[in-house]
Amino acid sequence: MNNDRILINKLKSFENINSNFLNIILVLFGALLLALSSKVQVPFWPVPMTMQTFVIFLIGMTYGVRLSFATVTLYLVEGAAGLPVFASGGGLSYLFGPTAGYLYGMLFASVAISYFANLGFSKTYFKAAFSLIIGSIIIFSFGILYLGSIIGYEKAIAAGLLPFIPSEIFKIALAVALIPTIQKIIKK
Question: What is the tens place of the pLDDT at every residue in 46-65?
């Protein structure tokens, strides 16, 4: 793994900090951002959107694979333990309820996006967009497969995918505008 391709490792202010301590801080910070982003509801058509997948995109594009995995895993564990980190609360039932597939999809998407970032996909707008589209496909595939097993696949696509496409396009565009631009600024 080439750590100089991962954005978080390029920040000069982090150079002299113990890497284990820094990793713990980054995992806690990422899990906190995910919890906060699940509470942020932005009016959007046709359904309101939360910013969770946007934070998944940011974590995936700025953290390494292991750090992304640890961050999202901590977030899921916090929610399973009953902390109100999910959109409507917390508890083990969320990891088995109708939205569980999306939560697990976020874990795998963050790892996939981090893998692509490690290959340099966070440096250009086109490659960043590609990795985030793959991440979204992973999240929604897990979500639709699980939700479809509960309510049927036609209903799952109608209720759990189609209304969210406009907001996902917006979040992908926002992340694509931010991360490669930050990469270019830091490189200077």
Answer: 556 889 999 999 999 999 99
Which of 122, 128, 78 is closest to 103 using CA atoms? 78
Looking up residue 78, the CATH number of its domain turns out to be 1.10.1760.20
Domain interval for residue 126 = 3-187
Q: What are 119's two structure tokens?
A: 């290959």
pLDDT tens across 19-54, in order?
Answer: 888 889 999 999 999 999 999 887 765 556 889 999
**Distances from the Cα of 171 to the Cαs of 34, 42, 49, 55, 58, in angstroms?**
14, 11, 10, 9, 10
Interval 85-128: pLDDT, tens: 998 899 999 999 999 999 999 999 999 999 999 999 988 999 99
Q: How far apart are CA 63 and CA 3, in angstroms?
A: 10
Dihedral over alpha carbons 143, 144, 149, 150 (to 10 degrees):
70
Neighbours of 33 (CB within 10 A): 19
**Six-digit token pair at 116?**
């692509």
Q: Rounded CA gap, 113 and 67, in Å?
A: 12
Answer whether the bond into residue 98 is a cis peptide, omega within 30°: no
